[in-house]
Amino acid sequence: MAQNTTQQTLQQRLEILADAAKYDASCASSGTAKKNSLGGAKGRGGIGSTEGMGICHAYAPDGRCISLLKVLLTNHCIFDCHYCINRKSSNVRRARFTPQEVADLTINFYKRNYIEGLFLSSGIIKSSNHTMEQLVECARILREEYDFRGYIHLKTIPEADPGLIHQAGLYADRVSINVELPTTSGLARLAPDKDARQIEGALAKTKSRIIEAKDERKRFKHAPRFAPAGQSTQMIVGADNASDADIVVKASTLYGSFGLRRVYYSAFSPIPDASAVLPLKRPPLMREHRLYQSDWLMRFYGYAPDEVAQATDSHGNLPLDIDPKLAWALKFRGQFPVDVNRASKEQLLRVPGLGTTAVGRILNARRHRTLRLDDVARLTQSIAKVRPFLVALDWRPTSLTDRADLRALLTPKQEQLELF
């Protein structure tokens, strides 16, 4: 869509480029209700509003929830990925910032206490190297000219020169490279300008640099840091025919091969003037949620990828009405019930309804006394899902574990929400 962007105000460009950035889930953003600080009580301006164009929330490496300016450098792009709203052939409003403008916006937002950091990505303009140079320059201005010590997350471009990605890691707390789609065939069909081997090669090089930088910091106190918060990636769900089992296996491979801090999942959303090869409607948002739950099972509960895949249906997809942990337990009832007073930590983590915190409490409490069902109820949020899968001093589920209608009993009831 040809247009003259030179007449756009800074606010107009921010509106366009902040909206364009919302499709990237890899900074774990979440929205809040928009508030207006103008016209506060007694005619004075209000205080405390940190919501507006481009402001999102993410979690820092130490667990703090922080506000970030989440924005694209530009939504112009020379690539034509079918699923992308900013693709070359898309009929959308275009805008562009200079690195200096993004740096100034970041500092101005920071001084007003709106944000604590920056998430910066971009469409590809002129070339991958040119775009990467612009992203790095923005981070350089912030770090070297403004002495900005806040959080910076840069989305890097796998096609760019490795030296530029290295510079990005020296300035950024975290870097990310999107693998885009779960399968090589899906990427070739929907993103013909991108190469799966090139993407994975860039991920591997970044992993090596992170490890090298950590080793150097052990030997030399003032050695430069390289992406101390690690690297992450994102996969689009529902744009191709990949099943949940395919996505789970891919995520596990990415974690194991490239030492990723997170794999993010983004449900495909239909876009204007969409390509005929794309689905006509988006997948259920619950599918994205179930994938995050399966991701948690592999990272914190000791499940192998093939075990998560065993919880899927005949088409390789996770059930939408129950969580994957319960789905696995229902398929492998022979593993239950487990004795809450004797079972290992690994066995307890398999019990539906018991999270890592509850399991830790149980292991600590049973050192001092033999646990009854009421004790377990006090140590977990809900006992209803737990009862069929464990034995306590005063409780045995007997035939409950093997009931044919157990799934129906444990499936959350759908209720119509009320306004009042």
From TrEMBL:
Protein name (record): Putative DNA modification/repair radical SAM protein
Lipoprotein as UniProt keyword: no
Cell division keyword on record: no
Pfam family of the protein (one): Fer4_12
Cofactor: [4Fe-4S] cluster
Highest taxon, organism lineage: Bacteria
UniProt entry keywords in alphabetical sequence: Iron, Iron-sulfur, Metal-binding, S-adenosyl-L-methionine
MF GO annotations: catalytic activity; iron-sulfur cluster binding; metal ion binding
Species, as recorded: Erythrobacter insulae
